[in-house]
Automatic annotation (TrEMBL):
Residues 236-372 form the MoaB/Mog domain. The keyword Metal-binding applies. Keywords: Magnesium, Metal-binding, Molybdenum, Molybdenum cofactor biosynthesis, Transferase. Catalyzes the insertion of molybdate into adenylated molybdopterin with the concomitant release of AMP. This is Molybdopterin molybdenumtransferase.
Length: 460
């Protein structure tokens, strides 16, 4: 069914009966008799306490969206504190979080060094220029006598008793080979004294700092070969569904697996070490075995979260005696997503099979859990005004792909739960409250990792 009022790119299956009815009725708002007040545009209920159209069945068990994110973060909190730091080479440390303060292992600079190419000079000029110059990386040169100069390169060790460095563009040599300054020389100029940036033992960065390329550079400069870091949470991805092809075009009711290629790099961008991706079909036994044997910190399943004949996730979790921490979330798309504790130190996030619903589950449940396990800081929440109105769900939060243009978030079309066309062009997801948001209303934004950091920064 396609309800009048469903916007371009919105998927009718995304809307439940109440929502479709709300849209239909909303469309005929003008034709209502005077005094007929409802239901009309559904009023925006408060988060977590949604107003429901009269007669609507409350969605039992479904957790409000903000609560679901908080529960996912909390579920990992005590585990995060107990994770043993790992020692990783600088080459493997990008994106990890420091498990110990970065303390300087040396003074920086570790010797008095020249800030410029030119001459090290002693006393006032003119100076006799020593035959042998000083290059970076050389052993300590002999002391300068008063009235003596030595050619010196940027980064080279300053000879003892040097009083200043004269830049090459500020000196000239006469016929006798004596060096004259062409401008006044200040005592100590262009000498970087040992320890100017830090002394050995100074704290350069605290525990919890994210290892960026700049941190790698600083650590190397300060003498580190390895860093103590919080290990990446180990994640196993189990893709469920007999209808999935791994190559070629869809045919005969079979479709391409869109989640297998999408989830591992996305999980990596969220800080995970993806140890395995396995396609299990719709095989309850294989799922049970995979969950029993896995030693990952987090198992992410895709599909099979609803109540169809081959939706094996709930029955398998029941069989395993798993504790369901979140069983359905008041969010569209993705409302059947779930979070379970399989063992005290092992969780499962069940993502719905519809691909945009899976993205919603990834950002709602997997992101806070992985962030907490990886000890990454929470991104600062921020909002931007919507450039166009965003259609809301009557009583669930909706996540809508947007592009950021100037100071506005522009909602994208093709945001139905089975569609990736919108998110593939997006910079962020806008959090649209129940009832929707008119143009100009501020919406909270969830940045997509590559939109902020660039592709190279988050997928290495
Ligand atoms: N009776 C009900 N049926 C459904 C409900 C509901 O509330 N009551 N919710 C719908 C919603 S909303 C979603 S989302 C889906 C979630 O279903 P599952 O998690 O059980 O997923 P599947 O049924 O396995 O698949 C749904 C859909 O997605 C396609 N799919 C699955 N895996 C992939 C993949 N790796 N790549 C691309 N596409 C995939 C699959 O073929 C289906 O079309 O349930 C609704 N039903
Ligand atoms: O609305 Mo579902 O949750 O299609 O994803």
């Amino acid at each position: 069914m396609t309800a009048p009022g469903i916007r371009d790119g919105q998927d009718a299956e995304d809307l439940d009966v109440e929502e479709v009815l709300a849209l239909v009725k909303d469309d005929h708002h003008a034709a209502r008799p005077a005094g007929d007040r409802g239901p009309g545009p559904v009023p925006a209920p408060g988060r977590g306490n949604p107003a429901r159209p009269s007669g609507a069945e409350p969605r039992h068990r479904a957790t409000p969206w903000t609560d679901a994110r908080a529960i996912a973060g909390r579920a990992a909190r005590s585990l995060a504190a107990r994770r043993t730091p790992v020692s990783v080479t600088l080459g493997d440390a990008l994106g990890l979080v420091l498990a110990a303060p970065l303390t300087a292992l040396t003074d920086l600079p570790s010797f008095n060094t020249s800030a410029m190419d030119g001459w090290a000079v002693a006393g006032p000029g003119p100076w006799d220029v020593r035959e042998e110059g000083v290059l970076a990386g050389h052993a300590e040169p002999a002391p300068l006598a008063d009235g003596e100069a030595a050619r010196i390169a940027t980064g080279a060790r300053i000879p003892p008793d040097t009083t200043a460095v004269l830049r090459s563009e500020h000196g000239r040599t006469d016929e006798q080979g004596r060096l004259h300054p062409t401008r006044e020389v200040q005592h100590g100029q262009d000498i970087r004294p040992r320890g100017q940036e830090c002394r050995s033992g100074d704290q350069l960065l605290p525990t919890g700092a994210v290892v960026t390329p700049a941190v790698l550079g600083l650590a190397a400069a300060a003498g580190y070969d390895t860093l103590a870091a919080v290990p990446r949470p180990r994640v196993e991805v189990l893709v469920l569904g007999d209808e999935l092809l791994t190559e070629g075009r869809p045919h005969d009711g079979l479709i391409r697996d869109a989640l297998g290629p999408m989830l591992p790099p996305w999980l990596r961008a969220l800080g995970a070490d993806v140890v395995a991706l396995r396609r299990l079909g719709d095989d309850a036994k294989a799922l049970h075995q995979a969950l029993t044997l896995s030693s990952a910190d987090l198992i992410v399943t895709t599909g099979g979260t609803a109540a169809g004949p081959v939706d094996h996730v709930h029955p398998t979790l029941r069989r395993l005696g798993a504790e369901l921490l979140v069983d359905g979330v008041q969010v569209r798309p993705g409302h059947p997503m779930l979070l379970a504790r399989l063992k005290p130190d092992q969780h499962l996030v069940g993502l719905p099979g519809n691909p945009l619903a899976a993205v919603s589950g990834l950002l709602t449940l997997a992101e806070p859990l992985l962030r907490t396990l990886a000890a990454r800081p929470a991104p600062e929440p921020y909002t931007l005004p919507l450039r166009e109105a965003a259609q809301g769900h009557p009583y669930d939060t909706r996540l809508i792909p947007v592009v950021l243009r100037g100071d506005h978030a522009v909602p994208l079309h093709y945001h139905g739960p089975a569609m990736l066309r919108g998110i593939a062009a997006a910079d962020a997801l806008a959090v649209v409250p129940p009832g929707g948001a008119p143009a100009g209303q501020e919406a909270e934004l969830l940045d997509l990792p590559w939109a902020v950091a660039g592709i190279g920064a988050c997928f290495t």
